[in-house]
Amino acid sequence: MIRVKICGITNLEDALFAIETGADAIGFVFYSKSPRYIEPNLANEIVNQLPPFITPVALFVNASASEVDAVVSGNSRWVVQFHGDESPKECDSYGVSYIKALRMKPELDLRVEFDRYIGASAILLDAYKPGVPGGTGEVFDWGRIPKSSNNPIILAGGLTPSNISQAVSSVSPYAVDVSGGVELAKGKKDFVKVRDFIFEAKGWSKK
Questions:
Q1: CB distance 9 to 26 below 8 Å
Q2: Per the database record, which ranges form the N-(5'phosphoribosyl) anthranilate isomerase (PRAI) domain (predicted)?
Q3: pLDDT digit string (tens) for 32-58?
Q4: What pLDDT, on a 0 to 100 scale, did the predictor assign at position 150?
Q5: CA-CA distance, 31 to 23, in Å (whole number)?
Q6: Residue 121 neighbours by CB under 8 Å, 6+ apart
Q7: What are the C-alpha distances in Å from 174 to residues 54, 70, 142, 191?
Q8: Which residue did the predictor score with more confidence, 128 or 197?
Q9: Using CA atoms in the order 77, 157, 11, 67, what is the torsion angle rounded to 10 degrees?
Q10: What does the pLDDT look like over 62-73, one tens digit per residue?
Q11: Closest CA to 155 of 102, 84, 195, 98
Q12: pLDDT at position 13, please?
């Protein structure tokens, strides 16, 4: 069954609701320019209260080693998501399980990038918008995604409760990732949208 990551979590209530509704992973943004930014100490307090078998994901954009360490040193459960221009060597240097996000620039050769980031536990594909590292709310051409890959694919970019079923059937990704598509406001989740998104992604009945 497809996995679902709810990203941009800023409070325990949203995290627990997403998990109770069926989310497999919870994402926290440690990029200070994002309206969904969360302080490392608060994020670790939330992670310490998550139930077992849930993966907390720490999202960074071209962060320093000290910024990454300030988060991941607080809990052994973290998986890191590199969402900037980090090289394979830099990603591998932390010795932790990581996801590498790739923004779908027109000239991007996915096969080349898959081979470059062979050490990644998964590759996240997001829409490309100049000057915006993520959270664009835009969908890219899913037809550009290869039908097979050595890396598990996480699909992101403009996903909502209304298009997630089509996305899953079109791409058959390992997992899907959503943030803005299930919000009331930036950093605050809409519980109805979260539930609808997860149920649509997993093909569950809402009855």
A1: yes
A2: 4-198
A3: 999 999 999 999 999 999 999 999 999
A4: 85
A5: 23
A6: 79, 97, 98, 99, 152
A7: 16, 29, 14, 24
A8: 197
A9: 50
A10: 999 999 999 999
A11: 102
A12: 98
* Distance in angstroms (rounded) separating the CA atoms of residues 7 and 19: 12
Chain position carrying tokens 């209260």: 49
Q: Which residues contact 69 (CB under 8 A, 6 or more apart)?
A: none
Domains and CATH numbers, the chain: 3-202 (3.20.20.70)
Give the whole-angstrom CA distance, residue 191 versus residue 27.
16
Q: Which two tokens stand for residue 185?
A: 């406001």
Does the pLDDT value for residue 9 go beyond 80? yes
- Mind telling me the catalytic residues? 7, 126
Confidence of residue 138 (pLDDT cuts 50, 70, 90): confident
Which residue type does 202 have?
A: K
